[in-house]
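The step that takes the researchers longest sounds almost clerical: writing a folded protein down as plain text. The outcome of that step, for a single protein, is printed below.
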Amino acid sequence: MLLVLLKCTSTYPATPENTNILTIPDLRQRYGCEVGISDHTMGVGVSVASIALGATMVEKHFTLDRAEGGVDSAFSMEPAEMAQLVVETRRAWEALGQVKYGPTEGEVKSLQYRRSLYVVQDLEAGDLLTKDNVRAIRPGLGLAPKYMDKVLGRRVSRSVKRGTALQWELLSS
């Protein structure tokens, strides 16, 4: 048997500011079970945000045609809105991913489009790196721009042509 606790705000329709979905992770921690939301707000935003907070179930009222009336028709979702809810909550769930720092597998090919440090003037061995001869430009084949302060004031260990991506081995010790 699967037990799912649903966070519910019993106003119809509920307003987002009264929904308090930060309760969702607390319910999971306190009771050690699956959690979700019984969502009576308009639209899909609160439900999508609930997924980001750990909800694994969403309950929404449904109607084929809001214009037909009924006690809960004003805040019930029509078929196209329900389809949008499914798409957007799935996107939110997939976006959670895992704790990971650094580029994802999908970003590796795009790293070249980042900026990096380049020598922008011809330099001779022993020349000093300055703001005039080093720039952060694309592609990202050199040192990351965060190292600018660490390279300025250092000398190059050999002649370097304009347009060379700056690497640590080009610098004197």
